[in-house]
Specification:
This protein is an alpha/beta fold. 26% of the residues lie in helices and 28% in strands. The chain binds flavin-adenine dinucleotide.
């Protein structure tokens, strides 16, 4: 069984993100693998090491200089990697991103499991995994905190999902799409050999034609305007007083004076 892992490249959380004239730029650090996707890659490698998967394949969508994410996956140890890149995918929303990724997944045989990170730290919608599952017509199980069982012969997967209400155990039929949480494993650090392999790895680039993008699928959500987060000017005033009662009375006076109460 092949396990596919979808890996996104994002700015480093330490980057200085700036917006000028609606263009988002980030400086000071190189882009990185989306932190949630390290856990997705690690889970695919662990399944292979347990003999439950034969091949780990990483897919990323972006432009040709957005390969830091997938290079990290190669350095961690995935067997194969592919970049889906096409001018038609520039500024893609999640609908177009999920279309491109699902078209790429269809090109591989024996895919039993597709693993996503819970979300990307830049777009942050958490929508892509569910949309890819819908497009492929496969089960989708999000917020997976543990894979309890994977029976390739019977064609089933049993997972534990971590929800606000508590843990939920679900059994699904393969092929399945999952998104994973950070508590699922401890990602390995790429070894020196892994890093060298990644630096020499020729990453195949698949165009829109290669994955048979449907021209009718276009972005529905556009970002007409991107602006800096407004800076809130605030101040705090410490209410002095010898007793709590005195402080409370002074606070009430101020709130009345400011017409808050
Ligand atoms: C420069 C720029 C311009 C953009 N312009 C627009 C715009 O005009 N309109 C709009 O709606 N959105 C825009 N986006 C956001 C873009 O649509 C989303 O980043 C993208 O669709 C993925 O959604 P997300 O980031 O919310 O990922 P999530 O859904 O939060 O990601 C969940 C998981 O999906 C997988 N994944 C996500 N993206 C990829 C990828 N590219 N390759 C492989 N796996 C992936 C990863 O496993 C990730 O952990 C823009 C993004 C960028 C960087």
């Amino acid at each position: 069984m092949r396990v596919v892992v979808c890996v996104k490249e994002t700015p480093d959380t330490a980057a200085n993100i700036e917006v000028s004239e609606g263009i988002v730029t980030w400086s000071g650090t190189s882009p990185v693998i989306n932190p949630w996707d390290e856990y997705a890659v690690e889970e695919s490698l662990l399944l292979k090491e347990k003999g439950l998967a034969t091949v780990c394949t990483a897919i990323t969508m972006g432009n040709e200089d957005t390969c830091e994410g997938i290079k990290h996956a190669i350095a961690m140890g995935v067997d194969e990697a592919v970049l889906v890149s096409d001018p038609a995918l520039a500024k893609a929303d999640t609908l177009l991103t999920s279309h491109a990724l699902s078209q790429a997944i269809r090109r591989f045989d024996h895919v039993g499991l597709v693993i996503f990170g819970r979300q990307a730290i830049d777009g942050d919608t958490g929508q892509t995994a569910v949309q890819v599952g819908r497009r492929l017509g496969w089960n989708t199980l999000t917020y997976v905190s543990k894979i309890l069982a994977l029976d390739v012969i019977a064609g089933t997967i049993t997972v534990e999902r971590m929800l606000e209400q508590g843990k939920q155990v679900c059994i699904g039929r393969l092929p399945t799409v999952i998104s994973v949480l950070k508590c699922i494993n401890e990602p390995r650090y790429p070894s020196f050999i892994g890093l060298r392999r990644a630096s020499q790895f020729e990453i195949p680039v698949w165009s829109g034609a290669d994955v048979m993008l449907d021209p009718a699928v276009t972005s529905k959500v556009t970002w007409p305007e991107v602006s800096n987060v407004p800076v809130h000017a605030g101040f705090a005033e410490i209410i002095e007083g010898t007793t709590a009662q005195e402080k409370a009375e002074k606070l009430v006076e101020k709130l009345i004076a400011d017409k808050v109460i």
